[in-house]
TrEMBL record:
GO terms for molecular function: ATP binding; GMP kinase activity. NCBIfam families: guanyl_kin. This is Guanylate kinase. It catalyses: GMP + ATP = GDP + ADP. Gene3D superfamilies: Guanylate Kinase phosphate binding domain (3.30.63.10), P-loop containing nucleotide triphosphate hydrolases (3.40.50.300). The gene is gmk. Its EC number is 2.7.4.8. Belongs to the guanylate kinase family.
Amino acid sequence: MIQVLPIQSSATTKESPNPGRLIVLTGPSGVGKGTLMRSLLQRHPQLYYSVSVTTRSPRPGEIDGKNYYFINRSKFEQLIAEGEFLEWAEFTGNYYGTPREAVLNQINSGKLVVLEIELEGARQIRASFPSALSIFILPPSFDELERRIRSRAQDSEEAIARRLHRAQEEIKAADEFDIQIVNDDFQTALNDIEAALFE
């Protein structure tokens, strides 16, 4: 069994030749986290992206094992009971979680591990991994966030209303995180994330 505490101390020790670190990227639905993450990984293949597990249905073009691991609720609840998640949360009626073992192994091997997760999960990570770098992505305005969510044309009106209500609550939590980045201009936001990770 891998212990969390030794990872914490090694990740923050200056003498370590190649310390691993956990990076958490969060923000409201529709803010552009996924697009920023894809560009970040293309530009920096040395980053380890932790693929989340979810009970929601795949969106058009999503690939099991690449975008998410898509499983049913009973299997997800079994994994919760077995302690297989570093964090997990329920969001708009679906479960999302981060597989524990793969993330801890990568941190121990000296990798920068990036998680793109929802607010509740990000708070769990901050509690168990205080040395993690947490980045909150903000929309330029709430109206723009609504426009982006609607432009996906993937959600029902009811689902959009839930996402927007949730987004209002999530945006209030931005100050809990180490860095806040406004995704107004995509390239500027991407550069700001890179500066936080590599400079």
